[in-house]
Amino acid sequence: MTSTTIANLKNQIFQPVSQPPQPQAQPQPPSSSTSRKVVFNISQNFKVVKVLGEGAYGIVALAVHIPTQTKVAIKKIEPFERPLFCLRTLREIKLLSKFSNHENIVRLYDVQKPSSYAQFNEVYLIQEYMPSDLHNIIQTHVLSDQHVQFFLYQIFKGLKLIHSAGVIHRDLKPSNILVNEHCDLKICDFGLARLDSVNYKGEKISLLTEYVATRWYRAPEIMLNASDYSTAIDVWSVGCILFELLIYKAIFPGSDYINQLKLIFEVLGTPSESELQEVVKSKRAKIFIQSLPTRQKMNFHEFITCHPFRRLKHQERAADLNPLAVDLLEKLLVFDPNKRLTVKQALKHPYLASYHDPLDEPVTSAVPIEEFAFDVEKKDLDVEDLKKQIFNQIMQRKK
């Protein structure tokens, strides 16, 4: 694809709204929707503009770096009441520091250094600011086939680096994929990421717990074999995202894990006996699947082109669907993780041929097992010990 075509593509995506609608910027540190004030104890080099989002794990605000007038996103985390939040914080700092130079992974500019350990009660991650995310783009835009190709290529390009490091992201979903007005895409939120035990045979990797990834984007093996999965779960999540890019709606919006599996089988069909033998180790899980009504695999092309959300968006052009997109989708959403495409194979798929360039798809060295020693055994998590590790990680970090 020529540079002119890519430039035109980038100009199209934000035509309907040059930026997602945003409230008026506030000159002082903002408050949430309630009356409580959100205080950011950060360097005077930054001016907080407004809160962008808030969850159980932290609060993200838009700020301006005054000396350079650069917009940044500052994530405020108060992890020291719960050991699992400490683990998420450590993972995020370590992995974003390693991956920060990749163009499809959000950049961590800095982590604010605390004045002392005694006053260390909050963590501030200063990150690259992106005005939107893929969830917002799917909701508010009509996406051409070229947009879908370009977004998907960038996701796989970022994942190639992540997987080459022996890391599973474990929480890929549209809201964790940031997008700017130039169609540049960046993967974020590494708080649930873990080392892939396949790359560390003989090492004591902690059991991979079932609570990973927002349910709608979870691979079936997570729900059927909670402690045994690989980088293939990220590929499944990308398949779910591709489906969503095509029909403008989550394909498997399960209300619980049983409903989630039922929705998956309604689309993919009931797994064969050989697939059950290969993938499902639990006798109880096999009995459950065999008790469900037998389903035949849907015709993906027909399902997508007739989907009401796609017809609403594309109207008379809803049937204009690239068969290569369907072919790739069918190779990503495969029940048996060993038969799913790897990220490297997906990048070579004809659907991404306009963008694929092996010389511009970097890899990195595997994360040393020692770097994730804190994640090896979770029976006796000590918040104070984890706090010291986070403090040392921040103080030793180089910009």
UniProtKB/TrEMBL annotation:
Residues 18-30 have a biased composition (Pro residues). Gene3D superfamilies: Phosphorylase Kinase, domain 1, Transferase(Phosphotransferase) domain 1. Residues 16-35 are annotated as: Disordered. Its EC number is 2.7.11.24. PROSITE patterns: MAPK (PS01351), PROTEIN_KINASE_ATP (PS00107), PROTEIN_KINASE_DOM (PS50011), PROTEIN_KINASE_ST (PS00108). The keyword Iron does not apply. Keywords: ATP-binding, Kinase, Magnesium, Nucleotide-binding, Serine/threonine-protein kinase, Transferase. SMART domains: S_TKc (SM00220). ATP binds at residue 76. It catalyses: L-threonyl-[protein] + ATP = O-phospho-L-threonyl-[protein] + ADP + H(+). Its cofactor is Mg(2+). Residues 46-352 form the Protein kinase domain. The keyword Nucleotide-binding applies. It is an enzyme of class 2 (transferase). Activated by threonine and tyrosine phosphorylation. PANTHER family: MITOGEN-ACTIVATED PROTEIN KINASE (PTHR24055). Belongs to the protein kinase superfamily. Ser/Thr protein kinase family. MAP kinase subfamily. This is Mitogen-activated protein kinase. It comes from Lodderomyces beijingensis.
